[in-house]
Task: structure prediction
Amino acid sequence: MKPRISAASAGEIRLGGLQVRRMGFGAMRVCGPGVWGAPRDRAAAHRVFRRAIELGVNFFDTADSYGPEVDETLIAEALHPYPDGLVIATKGGLLRPHRNAWDPDGRPEHLRRALEGSLKRLRLECIDLYQLHAPDPRVPLAESVGALADMQRAGKIRHIGVSNVSLAELDTARRIATIVSVQNEYNVGERSSDDVLAACRRLGIAFLPWYPLGAGAALRSAGVKQIARRHGASPAQVALAWLLARSPVMLPIPGTASLEHLEENVAAAALGIPAEELGQL
Result:
């Protein structure tokens, strides 16, 4: 009999006053090609979300720019009313005027509109974790984070996170509001945020690595493939196990539109690869 796959095998982590399992789900990939438009099979997208819940995942990551304004709607269609304990994190601060554009807009007035749109699409009165998607070079970061702090005081945001930030930007954000999460690119082959990760561990801030599989690059690593063969695992599972072992504040959010890949990713939580092997990567 095959062992039961469960995100609970990854252990748990705190996000401010929230407790979630350390294997989350990045919902971006269920949108249309290029994270643009609706999926070809809406019902299949709903099945992926529901299967993630069945596998014990209780942290979903999304954003208003995914689609745009598609991903959040799909989550609500599939899961509302939401099961107890599910934490949905969303983000605002990027515009998608066309398929290939991801343009920062950190103006307070835009962030207020973005939050209201996310609340409506997700059918929520308060978002558990709202993240600034990226600093806007045309807007002082303190103004962008200050707008989120204002909306937190208004009861529309429970916790605040930041994404795509440097160590200095994290320090700036922390002077304005309590920051419970950072979401930066991080994987076996991309470790330029090591200093930010170290600060998160020191401060007890959750670190959400986006592109946890390096858009496939991590899966082509000779070291990853060697460990995968040795343990009868997939390269994706080894790359995710490496992230979980890398830091206790790591909260991977692998995304997929495939039920098979979803189960494969969640199963990585229970691989049990010795730390010395993963350390060779």
